[in-house]
Amino acid sequence: MATVSLVLVSHSLQLAEGARELAAQMTQGKVKIAVAGGTADGRLGTDANAIVAAIQEVRSADGVLILVDLGSAVLSTQMAIEQLPDGEGRVLLSNAPFVEGAVIAAVEASIESDLDSVAAAALGAREMEKVTG
What we know:
By secondary structure, the protein is an alpha/beta fold. It has a single domain, classed as Rossmann fold (3-Layer(aba) Sandwich), CATH 3.40.50.510.
């Protein structure tokens, strides 16, 4: 079974692990999901080297979609992508909401959609209405 993998990047390791747990439960573990969160010494923040390691952990020919929590995680992730050695599969950075996007991306990946479809589904989470009125 070929599936797109996910990387969840957060300033908090606990937040990234929680989002991974939720997405994994929704897909019965069918999708590889790696996390990078916090700094090496356990503080809040992001670490480009940890992001590279997370990408490499799940990278495949089917591609990797990366979701981030806050603005500076984008910068760290962009630096990480630049550091990646040439390898298999595209790596895309998503502008989707972190939790909703992770769940929707995982569900889409679990039905073996391609990377562009998984990315579009995650981005569609921006339009989800949680509260009406």
